[in-house]
């Protein structure tokens, strides 16, 4: 019970934004810039740290920029573009990035991204993308879990420590207004902490059905600390959650997706 | 841009679980026990703190315990109970607590609670409820936003400072496995930070459509730090998020709910 807890078991979790990161360009190394920025701030990465990185900088570093003028929209993209009052070139990109569009209305286009994540506009973003103009949009990394593994391996090589890496993007929810940071790529982090049948409640009974979405909770808080727009910074270090860090990279953020046939809304 | 940030703008956010809280019984004061536990730990509440409290202890303090044997199930409860392979008494309570049951299957009962929140079993919980046995279940507070306001007023009276109060419960999501802490009651906290048309991106353009679900992000991280089951503690203090604290109590967590006619799944 609570009164018998050791102090260290109740130690807190801290989220610290990483200041002073550069604007990312295709070919730049997220890991290298992270280590340099943490170093400039007088800190250093430790085992047990979780590096949370905004999807935007990973996508930019991976060169996932597309000029809308270079896209040739198909008939389907033109049709949905008209129905939803959107640029057909944008629709073509959304179609290319998705396996399925569960909802297409003027209010929202909800896509099942090829990775399985369900979100607005297949994660394609037109803000904070490029100083070159509004014509450039940014796609998600092709495989965000693979991106997280790559960043983790590079961080390990650069620093000798083995932090977890989480790539976060802001997503909407079915019944609630507003977006929360959500895990789209993970390496070295317990994505789901499955306590079904193992955990006990305070009275010694087996917990009914508790699977904790650890990675999404960490992404939510880190995204809040990182901020949006010109007051934001695209990375943060989470400390005090080392109980969920794993030596192996693990199954990644995609393991938190409901299989399509268990989707509650089909 | 990031390089021009003041250090204090990038200060981190910390979540500290509150150890050593008692088992709550009907009539106990959540505010009083929180202040006492923080005091025993050698700390004190400050302006700018957000007190996150698990729904369970608020419900227990408000006496929201029901013995299933005391419930007389209606024909409707019996019918849905049979369809979903659940106790008809439990179904009766779910019906009583809800305005609508969007989904009733053996896998899950998804309810629109009378407050408007959409969640499994209308938030009714059978674990960690009472040492008296498995027959006792716990309902949500009748009006969690009102509960948060009451706790806040009492904290202010006891301590002289004016922290925000957030009541959190773990909820499932439409397309993702696992639960995350979610705000069900708030007082003195910006629930939605609406940056549409006001925020600028790094290149000086107006952000497209960003409404940040601040309260839910704070609830997610705090719930993770608090933990579940017998290793958990039902309260945490969040520091460093004071930019979202408001002197007035504000519209509460219910303001983050999509109106039923904007529900993307009807």
At a glance:
Chain A is built from six helices and twelve strands. With 266 residues, chain A is of the alpha+beta class. Chains A and B meet through strand 1, strand 9, strand 11 and helix 6 of A and strand 1, strand 9, strand 11 and helix 6 of B.
Walkthrough of the structure:
- The structure is a homodimer of 266-residue chains.
- Chain A is of the alpha+beta class and 266 residues long.
- The first copy, chain A, has two domains: 1-59 and 142-256, CofE-like (60s Ribosomal Protein L30, Chain: A, 2-Layer Sandwich); 65-139, Alpha-Beta Complex (CofE-like fold).
- Chain A has six helices and twelve strands.
- Chain A has helices at 30-40, 55-61, 75-84, 88-97, 144-159, 214-226; strands spanning 13-17, 50-54, 65-67, 98-104, 109-113, 118-120, 136-138, 164-171, 180-187, 193-194, 211-212, 235-239.
- In chain A, the strands form four sheets. Chain A has a five-stranded mixed beta sheet.
- In chain A, a hairpin with a 4-residue loop joins strand 5 (109-113) and strand 6 (118-120).
- The N and C termini of chain A lie far apart (42 Å).
- Strand 1 (13-17) of chain A pairs antiparallel with strand 1 (13-17) of chain B.
């Amino acid at each position: 019970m609570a009164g018998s807890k050791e102090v260290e078991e109740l130690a807190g979790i801290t989220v610290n934004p990483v200041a002073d990161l550069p604007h990312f360009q295709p070919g730049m190394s997220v890991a290298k810039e992270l280590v340099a920025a943490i170093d400039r701030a007088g800190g250093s990465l430790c085992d047990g740290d979780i590096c949370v990185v905004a999807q935007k900088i990973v996508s930019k570093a991976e060169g996932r920029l597309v000029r809308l003028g270079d896209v040739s929209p198909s008939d389907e993209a033109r049709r949905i573009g008209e129905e939803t009052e959107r640029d057909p070139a944008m629709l073509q990109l959304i179609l290319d990035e998705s396996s399925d569009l569960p909802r297409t209305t003027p209010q929202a286009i909800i896509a099942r991204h090829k990775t399985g994540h369900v979100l607005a506009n297949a994660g394609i973003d037109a803000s904070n993308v490029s100083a070159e103009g509004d014509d450039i949009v940014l796609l998600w990394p092709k495989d965000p879990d693979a991106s997280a593994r790559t960043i983790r391996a590079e961080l390990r090589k650069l620093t000798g420590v083995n932090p977890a890496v989480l790539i976060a993007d802001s997503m909407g929810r079915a019944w609630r207004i507003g977006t929360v940071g959500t895990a789209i790529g993970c390496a070295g982090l317990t994505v789901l902490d499955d306590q079904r049948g193992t955990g006990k409640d305070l009275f010694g009974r087996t917990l009914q059905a508790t699977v904790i979405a650890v990675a999404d909770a960490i992404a939510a808080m880190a995204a809040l600390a990182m901020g949006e727009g010109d007051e934001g910074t695209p990375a943060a270090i989470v400390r005090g959650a080392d109980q969920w860090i794993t030596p192996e990279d693990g199954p990644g953020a995609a393991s938190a997706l409901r299989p399509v046939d268990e989707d509650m809304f089909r």
